[in-house]
Amino acid sequence: MTQAVNSSDTFPTLEGGRYAFFFDVDGTLAAIQSRPEAVFIPEQVVAQLLQLSDVSHGALALVSGRPIAQLDALAAPWRGPAAGVHGAERRDADGEMHRISLPVEVEQELRTELQNAMALWPGTQLEIKGMAFALHYRQAMQH
């Protein structure tokens, strides 16, 4: 006969505001996909995020290379603290946004150089995120 394990014996209580949770999206909350736009967070995972955010009094944040607008769409209806574009965008617990950016001429020069370089690799994809660029190569491996 198996005995049920009391969860209070194995997991700490979340009371007292002693814990905060930081979750990456791609590969953690959502399965890796061949193209970034195909990623989704399953409904059950979003429901669990909402529940964990509630019991931790909002001490939950998403951290990603994706822009915060994409995080909001993926995790809706959850909306809370987040760090996007590898930290170039941050939304604090009060909902205030903080952003850093590249000068326009630097961003344009980098974009052109990266687009030219990636044109040599069929199946690659350049994702332009303002302050950051993601170079996707999963599809190139099939060529």
Q: What does it look like?
A:
The chain is an alpha/beta fold and 143 residues long. It contains four helices and seven strands. Strand 4 and strand 5 form a beta hairpin.
Helix content: 25-40%
Strand count, sense and barrel status of the largest sheet are:
5 strands, mixed
Work out the oligomeric state of the chains in this entry: single chain
The number of distinct β-strands equals: 7
Cα separation of the termini: 55 Å
Strand content: 15-25%
As a whole number of angstroms, the C-alpha radius of gyration is 19 Å
Largest sheet, spatial ordering of strands? 1-2-3-4-5
How is the secondary structure organized here?
Layout: H1 7-10, E1 21-24, H2 43-55, E2 60-63, H3 68-75, E3 82-84, E4 89-91, E5 97-99, H4 104-118, E6 125-128, E7 133-136
Parallel strand pairs: 1-2, 2-3
Antiparallel strand pairs: 3-4, 4-5, 6-7
For the structure shown, list the relevant keywords.
flat, two-stranded antiparallel ribbon, alpha/beta, disordered N terminus, 28% helix, 143 residues, five-stranded mixed beta sheet
